[in-house]
Amino acid sequence: MAQVTIDELRNNIAVSELPDEHLQWLIDHSVYEEYEDGDIIGKFGSPSEVMWINLEGKVSFYMNVNGRQVYYITFENNDITGGVGGLLPYSRMKTYPGTSYALGKVRLLRLHKDHFHELESLNPSFIQKLIGYMTERAKIFATTKLQHEKVDALGKLAAGIAHELNNPSSAIKGIAADLTERLNRNYELTEELIGSGIEREDIRLIRTMVKEKSGEVNPRLSTSKRMMYEDELDDWLIDKGLNKREIAETFAEYGFKIEELESLHAKLGKEHFLHVLPWIENLISSEKVISDMDHAAGRISDLVGAIKSHVHMDRTNELQLTDVHKDLENTLTLMGFKLREKNIEVVKHFNCDMPQVPAYVGELNQVWTNLIDNAVFAMDKNGTLTVETTCDDKTATVCISDSGAGIPAEILSRIFDPFFTTKKTGEGTGIGLDIVNRIVKRHEGEIKVKSSPGHTEFKVILPLQKKPESKTNAG
Fold first, then answer.
1. pTM score of the predicted model
2. Quick check: 406 and 453 in contact, CB under 8 A?
3. Is CATH 3.40.50.1220 the right assignment for the domain spanning 315-463?
4. Average pLDDT of 76-100?
């Protein structure tokens, strides 16, 4: 092959130590190809049948992840990849899991897999060297996949959290505008009230009444009964010369009875009464919007607390005891939007006697997030998500089940395989089940699954006695 010399081929790190006759064998049995910048070298889904040896340039590889091209690695002539790629001896790869592109001008030798057996007979130690590169490549892929999956999962979780935070923050914005309007209106109403000549003693009476009503917990009426009482109260107010529907609505909500208002009318007289009621309504409504604002702010505070606990922001990534129930509650809180969107009923059966579990808390929370997210995805609207915990002297068990269609029996054994998903393109979850499986195994635990139409159950079993990883003492 005139295009490639032995000296040139020897510049490739993977083959640099081969004798001349073996290098010549590679040249004679390979196909020489050249590529320009951006050319496709290996296409996703096409048969993987050749090993390529890099002579010049670099090759970037993008994994196909749920229909998206995600950058994973650049193959170049270095100690990491050895300047070789494609199908390596003893690899089980059948088709390309992604697409490879030329970075700049690229020159390759492509050796078909039909020659692998002869190459092994020729130089067994070289085959072992290639297997070493393949093992290193698998480690890089696994690490990169984990990082991408974590970022993807975090992005999805962040989107849900943003939606959760948007509701109370929007409420606070609306409440602030309403409160500003009511405070301005209070000046006008107070001026009118003072102008009517009301006595200080009457103000004290009104203040006592408002305080009692604001503190009462009124039974919720049905919508029809509530509207009927508002209509009745509105008619009574109009009869007294006050045609303001909002007063009837507010007073009905806080349980003002017509008899009480009759008594107030008799004590104050008509003129004072007509000025007092709008002032009372504005005062009560102002207190209500302040209470609503406090509730919305509390909701934001709860969400921030759940986020902090969920991602384990205030602790190191070391084995620590954790309250699994609290972790599960935080996960459900952060996924509240998805649950409400499908009107999913959440049923919890927690074992109150469960002790704390030794865990890498941030990683374990990824397990709960993934399993719950998958369960929600598997269900149509009005489904049921069940979260149950049990324990014995040695283990703690978390069981997450859903009322979805179930996982087909023919693929059930494959759901923990890398890159395997039952979802359509673009619908893949964040942390894949293979990563979930690895996290559970890192905790020296076990994950089991069983499924039938209408019921799928994932059971995570964790040891209660796992000890922190020991550190080697210096010296």
1. 0.50
2. yes
3. no
4. 92
